[in-house]
Predict the 3D structure of the following.
Amino acid sequence: MALVPYGGGAGGSASMAMPMLTVDNYTVWAIKAQAIFDVHTVWEAVEPGDAAVNARKDKMARALLLRALPEDVLLQVSMKLTAREVWDSLKVRFVGADRVRAARLATLRGEFDRLKMADGEELDVYGGRLAAMAARYANLGETLGDAALVKKLLDMVPDRLFPVVAGIEQFHDVTMMAFDEALGRLRAFDERVRRRGQDGGERGGEQLLMTAAQWAARERRHGGARDDD
């Protein structure tokens, strides 16, 4: 993702560069843009609520937005005079009007229902895919709550994690559990299982070596007995 350096304003630096908007990165772009606006204390120009918009902050927010747009999109929104107008225009263009939004939500719900943990997939990777799905919901104005995320996570984990899933469901109210907490509990149990498996493998190796040594001693004894014969 290309970055557009911005050095103006308090705390402005290349490290807080605006990401360049593309045809397929709007969701991630909007999240990063809002975070950068918060750093520059100009997000209120985009979402002012009931308060009056500070003219200087509005100009800075609009400038940040325009600097992050490709030329074709820039030309289409250049006549928008406020940061809010530019932001709303981009949202309509990339998220769509109500009918398009409803269709995208239906598609997204289907994707979420079909989202499964692949064979050999790490917990953190699958958890990241679930979190990304929540971000896509939020970008369409919907909330994918912790309860739905936790249920999906617990339903999709591999067999080796079923004991901790049973414990979580028995001793905790999963409808009230935070997604990060559920993921953390599963991760801790998974790490413990893996560690015990490694320890077991080492003990198994030691046992195998002892058996081989005993077999060699037995062979020597038998060989000595045959030599005596």
